[in-house]
Amino acid sequence: MKEYILSAANYYNDEIEHQHQPKNIKIGFVICGRRHHNCIGTFTQISDFPRNDFWTKVDHSEIQGFITNTDRFVNRKEAYDIAFEYDQIIGSNKDYATNSIGLTSEDLY
Length: 109
Hints:
Blueprint: E1 5-12, E2 29-33, H1 36-46, H2 53-60, E3 63-68, E4 73-75, H3 76-85
């Protein structure tokens, strides 16, 4: 099965093992959303605001990326390579084999 990008996602390391996470995430959790700001908004809702020291540390561990159809969390750089290979990229980045920022949700939809 060829791997492709499904949606934006952010990884947060709270140093706890959670069930039902992407198969490559053993510690911490992933929040998916249409765009990365949707993931951040969900994190804000679940993370005691104003934040205590624990949630501030978790917030600073954030890695923005994407979820693939093979149930993997990938960072922006790896996501760009996957999306380019699967011909998912639209817009101004469509013809570039590499992107210094990595994939953005605007590159997909």
